[in-house]
Amino acid sequence: MDRATATGTSRVRTRAALVAGALVVAAAIAAVSVGGSSGARGFAWLRPAPPPARWQVARTRGGATFAYPPGWRAIEPDPGTASAALVEPALIAGYLNATPRDGGETLANWSRFRPAHDREEGDRDVRLLASATALRFRSGHGSCVIDRYSTSRTTYREIACLVSGPRSSTVIVAAAPESLWGRQAATLERAVSTFTP
What we know:
Elements: H1 3-34, E1 56-59, E2 65-68, E3 73-75, E4 82-88, E5 91-100, H2 110-120, E6 124-137, E7 140-150, E8 155-164, E9 169-177, H3 181-193
Antiparallel strand pairs: 1-2, 3-4, 4-5, 5-9, 6-7, 7-8, 8-9
């Protein structure tokens, strides 16, 4: 191999190595922004606090609680759960639910379990937007996701957290139609911040 060919080959290898390195860095940045404990920045709004004045408190049979604002109402939940909703004509504009952990969900597998659960429920186009572990709640710690999915009626965005407390583990879900998320997000985030498992 002559010197010119060796130099050209060396430059190609150097460029290929730089491109590969850049791709690895880009993938790492994407992973940090979407998942794992480093994804906590997507949950900077989660500041555990008591319910605001005038908010009602919903309680599961097992003692888990969350608060919901005036204008929302408690709705008939499944046994052992608690739910509240903002009901507008022909539309549930916001939804909150607390349910005891009852399957194979764990703090470690939550970012995989929740989207898979949505699919099992018949939801389509499920997309994980953010996830984080080791998040602090009022009396426990948890793993959370923010995801988006479509049903036969509309597309929803949800915050779903599995929270482990002193007595048990409970799932808290806060959801709204994607088209109303900008209007409902702050209320839903505040409600999740009041959650105690």
